[in-house]
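User: Good morning. I'm curious how nicotinamide-adenine-dinucleotide would be positioned relative to this chain. Could you predict the structure with it bound?
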Amino acid sequence: MTARIIDGRRIAADILREVARDVEELKRDGILPGLAAVLVGDDPASQTYVTNKERACREVGIYTEVHRIGASVSQDGLIDLIHSLNMAARVHGILVQLPLPPHIREQDIIECVRPDKDADGFHPLNIGHLAIGDSQFVPATPSGVMEMLAREGIELGGKHAVIIGRSNIVGKPIATAWMQGNPNTCPRVTICHRNDPRLDEMTRQADVIVVAAGIPGLIRADMVKPGAVVIDVGINHVPDKENPRGYRIVGDVDFTAVREVAGAITPVPGGVGPMTVAMLLRNTVSAARAQAAQA
Ligand code: NAD
Ligand code: L34
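Assistant: Good morning! Here's the predicted structure, ligand included:
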């Protein structure tokens, strides 16, 4: 069997068209949705991701401002900036691109963002809402994964999803959303981490594999049940002299081999990455709508 390729770029473009319509509607009501992104330091991957977010905002008509700050900024300096964005009426969504430099306590920064402007959904209050089932902001990558499965018509009720990686931004919130969601439409969840002694045994039982480990080639063809759905969240840079950037991007899945076994698979690039951007923008619009209703 050769897997169906799930085209994240196409699905993200569909979502961005919907977001653009929502933005138009808000503008008719006199509301211009705004997103502030904070980028600390000069990590090339983070720069690319923030640029992609900025470009997408422009495409759909969301006001955007990017605060590019040197890596030597103090924790207090960064907190002051976030407080000013919390207060700014033009800003409905705030995003602090991770990772932050090692001298800054990431969790302190996340907790400074006003929960109703937390377009990333990383604030503990929003994580708590997600866990009990009344979330306003679902983190962008997890909601992107769920949205892409839904739009591909992949039913999850009665299925077994194995999630590899348990970070706060991917593995844990996907597992959380599925654990508390409607049992008729959400899968049973298993979550694996770096010291899992039988990763292959677990993945072979999966109807759906979601992998976010950051290890190229971690998922081999012999680890996948024939017909399973494979969602590759991993983004890894491997040196490549042929590529003008000096590297190319691969996921955590041995794509060429696994696509011969799986039923459906996401590519990297062009899979989950563009979905992350689209879902952030959707969260920004819902933040703007909620804040306008409060005003
Ligand atoms: P992380 O880097 O913080 O942690 C990695 C997780 O993987 C940990 O929970 C660890 O226990 C687990 N892990 C590592 N090696 C493993 C192994 N051999 N077997 C099983 N589990 C293992 O996680 P993150 O921030 O979620 O990032 C993971 C990957 O996803 C990275 O490549 C990152 O670039 C990518 N990512 C992509 C998107 C996107 O939008 N496409 C979004 C976020 C992260
Ligand atoms: N605060 N930090 C915060 N929020 C996030 O949601 C993120 N993430 C992850 C890293 N740190 C974060 C992102 O934005 C990863 N991530 C992200 C965003 C966009 C893309 C990938 C990851 C993306 O656009 N990927 C393209 C290729 C990009 C390239 O050419 O390098 C793709 O097709 O996969």
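Residues 272-294 form the longest helix (23 residues). The pocket of L34 (ligand 2) is lined by residues 48-49, 52, 95-98, 120, 140-141, 235, 249, 268-270, 273-274, 276-277 (CB under 6 Å).
Let me know if you'd like a different ligand tried.
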